[in-house]
Structures are given as structure tokens and as C-alpha cells.
């Protein structure tokens, strides 16, 4: 097999659709070459080699790929007219990781590889710029030392060891900025850096470029398994076996002086989705300087620069002289960049996130990818591109990450609360949203408070997990393309970046804003849409459904085959779900209703009754409550089916366990406390979830089923007489044999007949069952003889198919996920290979007997996109999920069908 793919000078062995093999970065570097965008030449070592590296080890792998790598380096040398390690004309390279799915900042990059005592002379001669040559050299030692030789800070309160040395030298020289270092200073840094490496690692810093190259390749492959990469994969559900590619590429230099620069840009606004080219750059800088927030980057466009200055409270004069845009400093190159960004966006017909470097007046592109964006931006960009005719409806729909729609439903600040809130600082609106929480200063302490705001000078990839946990992120430094901003937008997390007034002391754990102190644990609020920081808590409320949201829902409506219902136990939930487009209720649990007010007393009386007569008396009391509830829900869902499940949980859950409550109950029932206690103890079960519950209750106490059936049918008849189209579907839970269902169905039908006679009116209703015991799925053909519909209860079905207790799985599931025994938590993501096959069998056997049997799902999985797609593939009629997941399920249902 081929392990190395070259690109350069308008030719490439790879192309954009080879992401699986070349990683996203490598595939797009190849593609840019093919469409005439200037890219420094290089080559990509495939993701398959990463897998080989992890399975067969370094020695074996390098032996296999060595000839191809050497040939590819030779080609780069030829195209750049340089030589690796040469004294006069050295070739310097970058070594970059790049996985299939973009993992920004997750893996490590080494720049200026090939530097040594000879090369630095060669670069000096060639460029006539000794300072630049030595600056590149010291950067190389820093990056290589960090990435390959593991020179890390000793603790989280400590600085990076190289930064320590830099600070030390600055102090000795009495200077403040990196740019004030002279060539001699940089030479001194190189010397001290090397000495530090020797001291810390016991190894000499490698001088042979080939040794450097292989070391860097190994580090990139190794970084696939670093903790932050692993965490990111978990979060984004990226499989461990994908691996990363390695891109080796000729360097171009943004740090060659004032005609050189480097930057990052977006073809549209990644926060709002507006079609505005934007980005940041730095003159005389290299690579990571922009994202790492070391110097304050400047805006690329003039209008962006003005907006930035306004937010920072900087006058137009000061802005134009101190922070001019690229459009102003390098108008010709700006024009080229603007043309290139348009070309790239048109080519990929999606918003691009690009990296560029200008070396002595020549523009080079170093990366392009589909840009990460907020949920709001995702919706707007898809709708705008559709309306502009750039993509078709199906493409627009496929651009929606269903889970991200959730962000559009997130709370926003209550305007009046915001007005009276005390604004203490202002930064950049890096990622929209409203966040209120308690201040923490270290990512690994984000979980210290129930809701925290992570406050950092800047964030780094190590902070990922804490950023995920925190409610919002505030940074003192860094721009719109800083690590914090990019990652926060990807997570849909509120972020304010570059709030310059915020001074942080990590040692004392205090932040100071204009003399005002905020300690760890103090409350602050962030508005990620305006960049404002407020003191204390600010109230939030639910958002309005925006126009783009509605348009996407229309698209979903057009393409989905399956219907989406909701799980709702109250008229209010039903109304919310209707607004989100739910067409019916897939699961109405009756037991929640019993906990309200006085009802629980009647319920307890029923449970603690000694005989049928007593039980019937208590049930009489419950009937009107139930009827009233059902009327409310059936009315809120008028015109749509409402599946009502008969009593399901073990009775033990309803009875009083505390002494005071038992006393009260004893009084109520006119019996002794001891008697109540005995009755309660009697209900104890060793395995309640496999015990006396579901239809086992209805079959042992048929009068419960009778009462519930009566309440449902009476409610429906009452509504019909009011002119409301009520459509009850009565669902028997937890059956394992057809007879269990048959006996319950008989009671329901008899009761309905009685009610119809009493009322002199009829309604249509269905009797069906939940399929949640594996035996019910296996014998679904028999069950379907009686059932008029099936609803797969995949929570219990997962529990019983795996034999994992839902309530106890927390003890081992995390370990199982870590060890790769399971890919996902099966209670969140339907296990298609196992539980899914049981579902499939149930559907097929059921439909063999009743071809038009109505079938749906009502477990948590009904709102999880991959599970929804599975439900479509086995031809279910609908999925049902909680109200706020209805939009997500609707989009997933549509995506399953395009
Ligand atoms: P990440 O995936 O973390 O963005 P990259 O591989 O894109 O890492 O590298 C980080 C930065 O290094 C890039 O933004 C770019 O500015 C710089 N860089 C990478 N390769 C080169 C190169 N060949 N010449 C100049 N700069 C480079
Ligand atoms: Mg990059
Ligand atoms: Mg169940």
C-alpha cells in the first residue's frame, strides 16, 4: 500500500474526499493545490500508518515508510530548491497532525524543523536577517522541546519552562516584549534552552534534521493518545481507531519582518453566521502567536477593526495607528486573501476557517476546513446558502448537526434584569449565550461549584474538559480566533474573550477589574453576544424561536417520513412540545400525576389496602383526578394520538418510608402505625425493577386497570361531547407473554363498553403495548394478534437485554467506556448491534401478522440522532422524546430519509 501522498506546485496525489486516509488537513492541502491556491509543498503520511504505529510499534512502522518519506522529502527539496540540513540553503519543515474530523489544537505541531547550528547560518545568509534566523531557531527548540521531549511546566501554577527562561532574560535586559530581543539575546536563549533540555531530560537536543523529523513524526502519532485528544474524541464521539495523519510541509515565514504576517480567518461570522469575511492577523509573527493570545491580534478587515476598537473603547485615531487592519497595512495582499477566501468558500460551498501566512509580500494558505460554528450560525449559514442557491435543500438539511439545535433553545438574559445589572468589564463576544456562575481559575476545578465560570488569562488545549464543564468562559487575553473562542463556539458554550481590564492572580485566586476584587467562588455573569461581563447573578429566560430555526423545521417537515411525538405527563409539557412540532404523545406516564397534592394519600390508601373492597374505595378517590389530568392532556394534543401508559412502577415507590409520614397515613386510614409499617415492609422487593410492576400490577389487581381505563375513556368521551378530537391510545407496560396483554386488553375493552353505554356516546381508542421485555420482542408475532400498536420502551429493553441495572450501571459504565468494552453509554445511544436487533425482530414479527401495525419508540433514545436514524431504518412510524428534543428528533428523522 501507499503510505505517503505528496502535494506541491499545483499538483497533488490526494484530494478533498480522501479525508479518511489523509485526515482533514492533508486532504484539503492537496485539494487547495489542485484548485490553484498557493500552498507550500509537502506530503501527508496516512492515518493507516498511525494505526500501524499503535499496533506494531515505531521500529517496524518506520522501516516500512522510510523509503517513501525520504523520496517525499527529496521532492520538497526539489520544489523549494533547498536541502534538508544544508549549511547554505537549508530546508525547514513543519510537522503537523491532522485527523479525519478536525480536532482544533488537540494534537501537536512542530515548526522550523531542520534547524541546527548549520541551518541557522544558512538561513541568516539567505535571508540577510540574523535576528529572524535565530528567532526561528529558539521557537523550534521551544516547540520541539515541548512536543517531542516533553518539557512541561512542573505544576499548573508554574509557567512553561521556556517561558520562564524568556522572562528571566527580559528581566536581565530590562525589556518587556519579545520583539525587543536582539540577535544576541536570541542566541543566548537558544543556549539556555538547550541547557535546560539537557538538565531536565538528560538528553542532548538533537541536531540531525532526520533525527528531528522522525522524532516529530513519532510525537504526532503518539499525541493521538494524549489525554486531551482522548477527551475530545469522547466528547465528539470520534472513534479511537481513526488515527491521525502527519503532514510534513515546507515552512513559510510570517516572521521575516514587516512585509510578513500570519493570520486566521473565517469566510463568515462563526458566532452569528452573518456573511462577513473576518479574522485576525499579526505582522512579523509565526503560526501559533495569533491563536495562543501572546500578542493582541489585529483585525483583517477595516470594518471588523472598527467594531473591535469600539468594543475596547479605543478611539479611531489610536486604532488606525496602533491596531490597523490588514486591509489598511497590506491592501494588495488583503485583496488576494479576500479573493482566495471567496474561492475556497465557493469551492467547498460551506463556511471555511483558514490559516494563512504572508512571507515577504507573498500569500500562502496553510489550512482550510469547514469552520466550527455556533448553533445559531449553523442554522443561518445553511438557510442563507440555500436561499442564495449555493446549496440545495437536502444539502442544507445535512449541514445541520441536530444536537446543536439545542443551543437555539438555550436561555437568554431577561432584558430587564440585564438593564439593572452592574457591568464590570467588556471583552469580545466570542461565543454567544448567557452564563451565570461562580468564578474558578483552573480548568480542573470547574466542577467545584454547581455552575462555574472559568476565568483564565488565556485557555489552552489542556483546559478542554474544564471548559466543557463550566457554564461560561472568560479570558483576559486573546481574540475572536483564540483557543478559548474557537473551542467555546464548537461546544456552543458562552465565551467572552480578551477582556483586557481583567487582571488575574492565579496564586491568590483573585481577579481584579478596575480595582474591584472577585475571589474564587464569587458570582459573575457573561453575555457572549455582547462581550459584557456583569457582577453577580443575572436572571435568564427561554429564547424566542428564530426565523432560521423555523425554516429548518420546515425542511425537516418536508423530508421526514417518521413522525415525532413527545413524552409528556402534563398539559404544559404537551403545549411546549406542540410548539416544537410534536405530533402526538408517545408516552404519557400516569404515575407522576399521583405525587401532586392530596393525590398521594389516596394512592397510598389504594396500595396499602388489605382487600379488593378497600382498594376499590381508594381507587374511587383517584378516578376524578386521573380523568381531569387526561382531559387536560388529550385536549392539549387534540387531533393527535396520545399514548397513555397504565401504572408501571413498583408500588414501593409510592408508600411513606419516613416515620412522620407513616403516622399521618395511619391516621388517615384509621389503623396503627405498626400496621402501616408492616404493610410498607411487606412491599419490599430485592429487585424491584424486575419485580411486581408494569402489567404485573394490573394482572394481580385488575381493578387498577379498570379505574385507569375508565378515567381515560370518560375523559375522551367528555371532550368529544365538547367538540374536542381526543384520540387516546391505552398502553399496557412490561408484557412478556401475549396472555398478559390479552387479559388487560379484555378489561380495557369491557370498561370502555360500559362507559359508552353509560354516556350514550362512543370514541375511537386503541389498545397496544410496550415492547420492553426481550421475550415480548421475540414473540412479537403472537403479541401483535392482540396489540393495535407497539411502542418500544428502549430504556427497559436495554436494561433487560444487557442485564445492566439502569440504577446501578453508573458504577461500571464509565470504566467500560474507558476500556472500550462499550463505545457509547447504551442508555444514551441505542445499541444497534444488540438491542437494535431485538427491536428489529420485534418490528418484523409484529408486521408479519399486522402489516399496518403502528410502531414507535418512547425510550430516551427517541431524541438521540443516531438512534432516530436507526428507528427510520427499521421503518417505525414515529419516535417520541422529551419536548426540548423534539426539534432534534425532527431533523434527525429528516436526515435519515434524504
Ligand atoms: P492546529 O491543527 O493546531 O491548527 P496546525 O498544524 O494547523 O495546528 O499548525 C499550527 C500553526 O502553525 C498554523 O496555524 C500555522 O500558522 C503554523 N504552520 C503550520 N505549518 C506551517 C508552515 N509550513 N509554514 C508556516 N507556518 C506553519
Ligand atoms: Mg491549524
Ligand atoms: Mg419500562
UniProtKB/TrEMBL annotation:
<dbReference type="InterPro" id="IPR040442">
    <property type="entry name" value="Pyrv_kinase-like_dom_sf"/>
</dbReference>
<feature type="active site" description="Tele-phosphohistidine intermediate">
    <location>
        <position position="483"/>
    </location>
</feature>
<comment type="similarity">
    <text>Belongs to the PEP-utilizing enzyme family.</text>
</comment>
<feature type="active site" description="Proton donor">
    <location>
        <position position="858"/>
    </location>
</feature>
<feature type="binding site">
    <location>
        <position position="589"/>
    </location>
    <ligand>
        <name>substrate</name>
    </ligand>
</feature>
<feature type="binding site">
    <location>
        <position position="772"/>
    </location>
    <ligand>
        <name>Mg(2+)</name>
    </ligand>
</feature>
<dbReference type="InterPro" id="IPR000121">
    <property type="entry name" value="PEP_util_C"/>
</dbReference>
<dbReference type="InterPro" id="IPR002192">
    <property type="entry name" value="PPDK_AMP/ATP-bd"/>
</dbReference>
<dbReference type="GO" id="GO:0046872">
    <property type="term" value="F:metal ion binding"/>
</dbReference>
<keyword id="KW-0479">Metal-binding</keyword>
<feature type="domain" description="PEP-utilising enzyme C-terminal">
    <location>
        <begin position="547"/>
        <end position="897"/>
    </location>
</feature>
<dbReference type="InterPro" id="IPR010121">
    <property type="entry name" value="Pyruvate_phosphate_dikinase"/>
</dbReference>
<keyword id="KW-0418">Kinase</keyword>
<comment type="function">
    <text>Catalyzes the reversible phosphorylation of pyruvate and phosphate.</text>
</comment>
<keyword id="KW-0808">Transferase</keyword>
<dbReference type="GO" id="GO:0050242">
    <property type="term" value="F:pyruvate, phosphate dikinase activity"/>
</dbReference>
<dbReference type="GO" id="GO:0005524">
    <property type="term" value="F:ATP binding"/>
</dbReference>
<dbReference type="InterPro" id="IPR023151">
    <property type="entry name" value="PEP_util_CS"/>
</dbReference>
<feature type="binding site">
    <location>
        <position position="795"/>
    </location>
    <ligand>
        <name>substrate</name>
    </ligand>
</feature>
<dbReference type="InterPro" id="IPR008279">
    <property type="entry name" value="PEP-util_enz_mobile_dom"/>
</dbReference>
<feature type="binding site">
    <location>
        <position position="772"/>
    </location>
    <ligand>
        <name>substrate</name>
    </ligand>
</feature>
<dbReference type="InterPro" id="IPR018274">
    <property type="entry name" value="PEP_util_AS"/>
</dbReference>
<dbReference type="Pfam" id="PF01326">
    <property type="entry name" value="PPDK_N"/>
</dbReference>
<keyword id="KW-0067">ATP-binding</keyword>
<dbReference type="GO" id="GO:0016301">
    <property type="term" value="F:kinase activity"/>
</dbReference>
<dbReference type="Pfam" id="PF02896">
    <property type="entry name" value="PEP-utilizers_C"/>
</dbReference>
<feature type="binding site">
    <location>
        <position position="796"/>
    </location>
    <ligand>
        <name>Mg(2+)</name>
    </ligand>
</feature>
<dbReference type="InterPro" id="IPR013815">
    <property type="entry name" value="ATP_grasp_subdomain_1"/>
</dbReference>
<dbReference type="InterPro" id="IPR036637">
    <property type="entry name" value="Phosphohistidine_dom_sf"/>
</dbReference>
<feature type="domain" description="Pyruvate phosphate dikinase AMP/ATP-binding">
    <location>
        <begin position="20"/>
        <end position="387"/>
    </location>
</feature>
<protein>
    <recommendedName>
        <fullName>Pyruvate, phosphate dikinase</fullName>
        <ecNumber>2.7.9.1</ecNumber>
    </recommendedName>
</protein>
<keyword id="KW-0547">Nucleotide-binding</keyword>
<dbReference type="InterPro" id="IPR015813">
    <property type="entry name" value="Pyrv/PenolPyrv_kinase-like_dom"/>
</dbReference>
<keyword id="KW-0460">Magnesium</keyword>
<feature type="binding site">
    <location>
        <position position="796"/>
    </location>
    <ligand>
        <name>substrate</name>
    </ligand>
</feature>
<feature type="binding site">
    <location>
        <position position="794"/>
    </location>
    <ligand>
        <name>substrate</name>
    </ligand>
</feature>
<feature type="binding site">
    <location>
        <position position="793"/>
    </location>
    <ligand>
        <name>substrate</name>
    </ligand>
</feature>
<feature type="domain" description="PEP-utilising enzyme mobile">
    <location>
        <begin position="452"/>
        <end position="531"/>
    </location>
</feature>
<dbReference type="Pfam" id="PF00391">
    <property type="entry name" value="PEP-utilizers"/>
</dbReference>
<feature type="binding site">
    <location>
        <position position="645"/>
    </location>
    <ligand>
        <name>substrate</name>
    </ligand>
</feature>
<keyword id="KW-0670">Pyruvate</keyword>
